[in-house]
Amino acid sequence: MKNYSGKRVLVTGGAGFLGSHLCERLLTEKHEVLCVDNFYTGRRTNIAHLLNIPLFEIMRHDITFPLYAEVDEIYNLACPASPIHYQFDPVQTTKTSVHGAINMLGLAKRVKAKILQASTSEIYGDPVVHPQPETYWGNVNPVGLRSCYDEGKRCAETLFFDYLRQHNLRIKVARIFNTYGPRMHPNDGRVVSNFIMQALRADDITVYGDGSQTRSFCYVDDLVDGLIRLMDSPDDFTGPVNLGNPVEFSILELAEKVINIIGSKSKIIFKPLPSDDPKQRQPEISLAQKFLKWEPRIPIDEGLKKTIVYFESLQ
Ligand SMILES: NC(=O)c1ccc[n+]([C@@H]2O[C@H](COP(=O)([O-])OP(=O)(O)OC[C@H]3O[C@@H](n4cnc5c(N)ncnc54)[C@H](O)[C@@H]3O)[C@@H](O)[C@H]2O)c1
Question: Structure pTM?
Answer without folding.
Answer: 0.95
